[in-house]
Please model this.
Amino acid sequence: MDFERDVLETDVLIVGAGPAGLALAYKLAGLVAADDSMEMPEILLMDKASYVGGHSLSGAVMDPRGLAELIPDYKDKGAPLEAEVGADSFYLLAEGSATKAPFMPPPLKNHGNYVVSLNKLVGWMGEQVEAAGIDIYAGLAGYELLMDGGRVIGVQTVDQGLDKDGSQKANFEPGSLIQAKVTILCEGVHGSLTRQAFEKIPELAADNLPQSYLTGVKEVWEVPAGRIKPGEVIHTVGWPSPAHEYGGGWVYGMSETMVSVGYAVGLDSPNPANDPHACFQAYKTHPVLKRVLEGGTMLHYGAKTIPVGGYYSIPRLYHDGLLLCGDAAGMLNARKLKGIHIAIKSGILAAETVLEALKADDYSAAKLKGYADRFEAS
Ligand SMILES: Cc1cc2nc3c(=O)[nH]c(=O)nc-3n(C[C@H](O)[C@H](O)[C@H](O)COP(=O)(O)OP(=O)(O)OC[C@H]3O[C@@H](n4cnc5c(N)ncnc54)[C@H](O)[C@@H]3O)c2cc1C
Model:
C-alpha cells in the first residue's frame, strides 16, 4: 500500500528523555530565556517510553554534581532523593562466606552521594523541563536516522500497526519524518539510531576502542524494617562469578524498608552459557544478601546494558547536524558504576554548543565540534 509520511520541521530534535536529553532541553531553554537577542527555538524532545522515566531502571547512587550544576536549587525544588549515603562497605564474596575489605577502594567511596530511584528522578526532571516550556513527546520512538548527503537531517519515527511479518494491519499509521537543524542522540546505551549513525558515518567510531558491556540486573525490594539503613551502600565482587570474570553486585538502602539490589555480569565472559539472570538469583542467596532480603517482597525487576569501555571507547561526539550525549556515547565511569551525573553534564555542554550553533545558524561539524572541545576541557 502506498502512503505518504507526514513531514514535521523543528530546530532542535532530542531523541531520548533520560538524564542526558532532559538536561540538554532544560539547559537550552534556560540559556535562550536569558539571552535577549534570541527567540525560543522549536525543541522537539521525544522518548519511546510511554511516560517520562518509564524506561529508567530504578535504584542508583547518584553523584549530585551534574544535577547541582543544572538546577542549583534542586533540593528546594523537591528533587526526589531517597537518602544521603551514610555508610559504605565492600565485600569479597566466596560461596557461603564473605571477607569485608578493611578500607573502601576510592572509586567506591560514596560519601556526599545520594541513593535515588532513577525512575522518579527522571520523572521529576521531566516536570522541570515542561515547566521551562518544552513539550515532551512520550511514546514516540525514533526508527531511522535521516541523512542528506553526508549530513544528518533528522529522524523517521516508527511505523505503528504492523503485524509480526511487517505487513500493515487495519490500524497502520506510518511514522513521520522529523527534520531538524540539529539532532542530538541521547538514546542511552547501544541505541538503535546511534548504531545507525556509526554505520552511516564510519568516521564517528574510527579512532576509538570498541565499546564493552556489562548486563546489569536490578530489583527493588520491600523488606522488614531494621535490615538496612537508608543511605547504606554495599558493593561486592566475587561469587557467583568466577574470579577471572568481570562483574559484581550491590545493595543500596533507599529507606528503612526499601532496598535496591543488583548484579552485573561482563558480556565478554568466555563462558557462552553465562546467564546474568541466573547469576543474580544465586547472588541473592548469599548470606550477605539473605540477611537483608529474607521475608521481603520484590516490587520491581529490570535489566539493562551498561557501557564500560571508558574514556578510550568514546566515539567522535559530533558530525554535520549531529551530537551524541550520555550513555549513547558510552560516557559512564565504569570503576564507579556511575553515569547519571556525566549524562547530565554532557547535556549541559551540548546545550551550550547548540545555543552557539543556533545563533550562528551553522550546524556544521566544524561548529558542533565545540561540544567535543567542551567535553575535553570539562
Ligand atoms: C543496572 C544498572 C545500574 C546502574 N547504576 C548506576 C548508579 O548507581 N549510578 C549512576 O550514576 N549510574 C548508574 N547506571 C548508569 C545510568 O543509569 C546511566 O549512565 C544513565 O541513565 C545514562 O543516562 P542517558 O540519558 O544517557 O541514557 P538513559 O538513562 O538510558 O535514557 C535514554 C532514554 O532514551 C530513550 N530512547 C532510547 N532509544 C530511543 C529511540 N530510538 N527513540 C526514542 N527514545 C529512545 C529511552 O527510552 C530512555 O528513556 C546504572 C545502569 C544500569 C544499567
About this structure: The radius of gyration is 22 Å. The mean pLDDT is 96. Residues 15-21, 46-49, 55-57, 60-62, 118, 141-142, 186-188, 191-193, 216, 218, 262, 304, 306, 326-328, 332, 337-340, 343 surround flavin-adenine dinucleotide (CB under 6 Å).
